[in-house]
Design a protein that fits this description.
about 475 residues, alpha/beta, Rossmann fold, 2 domains, six-stranded parallel beta sheet, 18 helices, globular, binds uridine-5'-diphosphate-xylopyranose, binds adenosine-5'-diphosphate, NAD, UDP-Glc/GDP-Man_DH_C_sf
Length: about 475
């Protein structure tokens, strides 16, 4: 079966870039990305490519090449579903904020709504692809909804799981050159095998065959949660060591280098930090913990939960270190934040460590001045308000946003590096120092600055995981 028409429901950080790359690499396939959010679709259609709703290096060029040819962004969800032979579900699956599983389980209401909408609208056979990260066995719920609602048994559905492994900030290169593509499907029936092959041949247009893995649906669903849990665990493991390094004159960068050269451990994902953020790690581990508990596997649940507890500790520890270093009071003191995004090269702030560090400091009545090259001002206030710690007006009063890093740092008592944006390394640090209160402190939560140079200028420096740079 040759796919000619793809619909993707959800034009977010996953759906948008993934479909742009599929469209660019498969010119014979018409790709329509739909979303109920009109503003988002308008932004994807904006002539001015700097206004795309997702910032990813290289994405604007790909959108420019494919948009209007075989890549379309639309709010006409029903029409796109009806016309497609393959439908990707790429909507958000946030942690539940109510009811059973509150604070842990994935909220599947958006997924279910999509399944019901597909069932209602479809008049021809469809391959439905789970792109969103989902709890293991969700496909059976989707299949049940598809088979039991809508136009009856005349329309046949095949469900595939095709988790997305792209990381934000490197989405385009991850999509163009993935380590692997994972496709889970029903490999016990001819129709299931045919659906798997159809999706294999889409990716096969640019991904080498040996990197396209096919498994059963449940393995594929669980592999995505497992991959994110392992990655987050590495960050929490090195962060745990960072605290020990600070007490023992070891240096976490040296330790990471030493262990990373062991090919069994590997060098990647060993950068100590103020804590991992992003929409996936915390949500997926909580989800994993919830699933384990549901099966009564309490030891498994506790084991993975510790990764989150360590991460929460790391964020809090960073904030408390700032407070204690600034003579145990930050009340009324200006503290500049360089970076608000959860990592560099993205405008995404979901679960960013910066939000939690800001929250702790605002509790102590600090005045926070933020500069981030890509995050919009309103987003920062939305992030803080979402925590529901204090009234919105108090967040407005306690935090100011600057378009210029030198302005953000002027008259500050301390600077905290929360995101590893490359441009921070190129600043005129002497100029920044001259305009700050003295003693001028830097708290490098990302390990990106050359502290020897900064110390020569006169800064008092702290770097995560480095006892040599302890205050
Ligand atoms: C992650 C997975 O990498 C990706 O495969 C999956 O599809 C989605 O979740 P993402 O959250 O976009 O991607 O970014 P990632 O690069 O994994 O970083 C997550 C967080 O961990 C960031 O806050 C990052 O700063 C932090 N991190 C990462 C560290 O603190 N140290 C590291 O060594 C690596
Ligand atoms: P992700 O990071 O997983 O891509 P996002 O939140 O960035 O998540 O994107 C998910 C998108 O899915 C949002 O733009 C949201 O409006 C859209 N969405 C959610 N439910 C539906 C639905 N039933 N139909 C169409 N779009 C939907």
């Amino acid at each position: 079966m040759k796919i000619k028409n793809i619909c993707c429901i959800g034009a977010g950080y996953v759906g948008g870039p993934t479909m742009a790359v599929i469209a660019q690499k498969c010119p014979a396939i018409k790709v329509t990305v739909v979303d109920i959010n009109e503003q988002r679709i308008a932004a994807w259609n904006d002539e001015d490519l700097s206004k795309l709703p997702v910032y990813e290096p290289g994405l604007d060029e790909i959108v420019a090449q494919a948009r209007g040819k075989n890549l379309f962004f639309s709010t006409q969800v029903d029409e796109a579903i009806a016309a497609a032979d393959m439908i990707f579900i790429s909507v958000n699956t946030p942690t539940k904020t109510y009811g059973k599983g509150k604070g842990m389980a994935a909220d599947l209401k958006y997924i279910e709504l999509c399944a019901r909408q597909i069932a209602r609208v479809a008049t021809s056979d469809k391959i439905v692809v789970e792109k969103s990260t989902l709890p293991v066995r969700t496909a059976s719920a989707i299949k049940s909804i598809l088979d039991n609602t809508g136009n009856g048994s005349s329309v046949k559905f095949q469900i595939l799981s095709n988790p997305e492994f792209l990381a934000e900030g490197t989405a385009v290169s991850d999509l163009l050159n993935p380590d692997r593509v994972l496709i889970g499907g029903d490999n016990t029936t001819d129709a299931g095998k045919e659906a798997i092959e159809a999706l294999v041949s889409v990716y096969g247009q640019w991904v080498p065959q040996e990197r396209i893995l096919t498994t059963n649906v449940w393995s594929s669903e669980l592999s995505k949660l497992t991959a994110n849990a392992f990655l987050a665990q590495r960050v929490s493991s090195i962060n745990a060591m960072s605290e020990l390094c600070e007490k023992t004159e070891a240096d976490v960068n040296e330790v990471a280098r030493a262990i990373g050269m062991d090919s069994r451990i590997g060098a990647k994902f060993l950068k100590a930090s103020v804590g991992f953020g992003g929409s996936c790690f915390q949500k997926d581990i909580l989800n994993l913990v919830y699933i384990a508990k549901t099966y009564g596997l309490n030891e498994v649940a506790d084991y993975w939960e510790q990764v989150i507890l360590m991460n929460d500790h790391q964020k809090r520890r960073f904030a408390h270190n700032i407070i204690s270093t600034l003579f145990n009071t930050v009340s009324g003191k200006k503290i500049a934040f360089l970076g608000w995004a959860f990592k560099k090269d993205t405008n995404d702030t979901r679960e960013s460590a910066a939000i939690y560090v800001a929250d702790e400091l605002l509790n102590e009545q600090a005045q926070i001045a933020v500069y981030d090259p890509k995050v919009q001002t309103q987003q920062m206030y939305t992030d803080l308000d979402y925590l529901n710690t204090r009234p919105s007006a108090a967040n407005q009063a306690g935090l100011t946003v600057h378009q210029n890093p030198y302005e953000a740092c002027k008259d500050a008592h301390a600077i905290a590096i929360l995101t590893e944006w490359d441009e921070f390394k190129t600043y005129d640090w002497q100029k920044i120092y001259d305009q700050m209160q003295k003693p001028a402190f830097i708290f490098d939560g990302r390990g990106i600055l050359n502290l020897e140079e900064l110390e020569k200028i006169g800064f008092v420096c702290y770097q995560i995981g480095s006892s040599a740079k302890q205050l």
